[in-house]
Design brief:
This protein is an all-beta fold. Helix content is 0%, strand content 45%.
Length: 171
């Protein structure tokens, strides 16, 4: 499956936009052999999340209600937050929050955001914290950084990954 050149957000009112290529709330997204490219999220004054992919769980309890599983996928040249600087922008390539994540054998490259988390942004602000596993995956040329994990999540594992500029807090 190839998703290329999609747009999310409202150019006139511009309050919020999520998931230029794919947007899921409390869903379970499984992607195999996919390409998500040149997708854009626009927000004039609100929040933009996940230029390529946005998966969010909205929970009222102690369980994780959403998941993202990707295998052998390419997430390339996506943007979040390309309009005005007054808005908040997260995750140029991928944004997740309160979602279990399993990414394997993927390439996350050339994504950008005018905020934080150029390649991938994990933004779970409070419990329950999801398990995030990233294996054999390349993060390269994402701007302003390859990946940003903002939660106090101790359930994040990266194995055999290449990050062009490393990851803050990991040596």
């Amino acid at each position: 499956v190839v998703l290329d050149g999609n747009r999310a957000g409202d150019q006139e009112l511009g309050y919020t936009g999520s998931g230029g290529g794919i947007h899921s709330i409390n869903g379970h997204v499984r992607m195999v052999n996919c390409i998500i490219s040149r997708s854009v999220v626009e927000a004039l004054q609100g929040t933009s999340r996940g230029g390529g992919i946005c998966v969010r769980g909205i929970t009222g309890g102690a369980t994780i209600a959403a998941s993202l599983r990707m295998d052998n996928c390419l997430v390339r040249s996506n943007d979040a937050g390309i309009l005005l600087e007054g808005a908040q922008h997260f995750g140029g390539g991928i944004f997740t929050s309160k979602a279990a994540v399993d990414i394997a054998n993927c390439t996350i490259v050339d994504n950008g955001v005018s905020g934080v988390g150029g390649g991938y942004y994990e933004g779970t602000a409070g419990a329950p914290f999801p398990v995030v596993n990233i294996n054999n995956t390349v993060f390269w040329s994402n701007d302003p950084e390859e990946m940003l994990i903002v939660s106090a999540n101790n359930n994040v594992t990266l194995r055999n990954c290449a990050l062009e500029n490393g990851l803050a807090g990991i040596s």
